[in-house]
Amino acid sequence: MSANSSAARSAFVALGLACWLSLPAAAAESVIPQSALTPSGQFYTDMIGGGIGGIVVMTGGGNAANVGLASGRNDDGFSGPIPLGYTLNFFGTNYTTYFANNNGNMSFVSGISAYVPTGPTGANSPVISPWFGDVDTRGPLSGVLHLRDDIANQTILTWDHVGYYDTNDDKLNSFQLVVRGPDYAIPVGEGTIGFFYKGMPWESTDTSTTAAVGFGDGADDSIVLQGSNLAGLNAVVEDHHIWFNQNLQPVPPVTAVPEPETYALMLVGLGFVGAMARRRARRS
Q: Where is 6: in which H helix or E strand?
């Protein structure tokens, strides 16, 4: 091979490497197995008491005519930035404020009015999505989004019996998001972020036929529940909950440990079974 040919080949390889390095990184999507869901049928606030908090009044997004209504009724609106009262590390970045979005999610940096559930993958802001769907609370029978932040280092957003686009209220979904700061003393079996679901009769709206559950970093990387953006996800999450740790990994539920009295009864039972077995052995 001539010196000129060698130099040309080296230049070609270098150009190819430079082009490859300039390509955007492929989006990464991790999947949370549906088996990580725990049957419950309760909100977290049902367990601790104290209610779901006040109505979230939307300050931006959506139809301008719906922004600022004291009733909280809106379509595609959001509220924020709202102070967390703590620092939340999410996908490696620290946040002290958030946006509460009507379409089933909490976001950072900016509010999200998007209603077709391409998220959490593809959302234009970092997002936590207990139910990314086209929520529409303008129907007279629909509930609205509520915020409870009276517990230190904890934020609770509840979409209470909410309808779907376009102003439909014949089916109403109820779901809740719990987010905790680093100073919250997390009980065993719980986590930093929790998704809770009660009745979830709808996923199909006038704009979309599916919904998504999970997390996105605003740059196409995501962690989604198995079945997101596929038909039937509402039936999967209904009457379930799931906790995640700081690394956005599911927290296994605590296995109930029998009380001492239960152990005693078990031992008595085992002794009875053993005695019966010896008696039968002697008779034989």
A: helix 3-22
Helix (H) or strand (E) holding 44: helix 44-48
User: DSSP letters along 170-194, please?
Assistant: EEEEEEEEEEE-TTS-PPTT--SEE
Asked, for residue 8, whether it belongs to a domain, the answer is no
What b/e sequence results for 185-219 when a residue is b if at least 16 CB atoms lie within 10 Å of its CB, and e otherwise? eeeeebbbbbbbbbebebbebeebebbbbbbbbbb
The residue range of the domain holding 134 is 27-253
Asked whether residue 174 is domain-assigned, the answer is yes
Convert 1-34 to b/e letters by CB count within 10 Å (16 or more is b).
eeeeeeeeeeeeeeeeeeeeeeeeeeeeeeebee
Please report the sign of the dihedral spanned by the C-alpha atoms of residue 70, residue 75, residue 81, residue 85.
positive
Mean pLDDT of 243-265: 74
Structural domain includes residue 4: no
Identify the CA nearest to 117 among candidates 101, 99, 104: 104
- Which of the 8 DSSP states describes residue 57? P
Give DSSP secondary structure letters for 226-272.
TTTTSTTHHHHHTTEEEEE-TTSPBPPPPPPPPPHHHHHHHHHHHHH
> Does residue 131 lie in a domain region?
yes
With 50 as the cut, is the pLDDT of residue 9 above it? no
Beta 222-225 vs 168-180: how paired, if at all? Answer: unpaired
Structure tokens at 42: 């309760």
Please tell me the pTM assigned to this model.
Answer: 0.82
Number of domains in the chain: 1
Task: Identify any residues that bridge with 132 across adjacent strands, giving them in sequence order.
Answer: 212
Across the chain, mean pLDDT equals 85
Whether 61 contacts 78, CB under 8 Å: yes
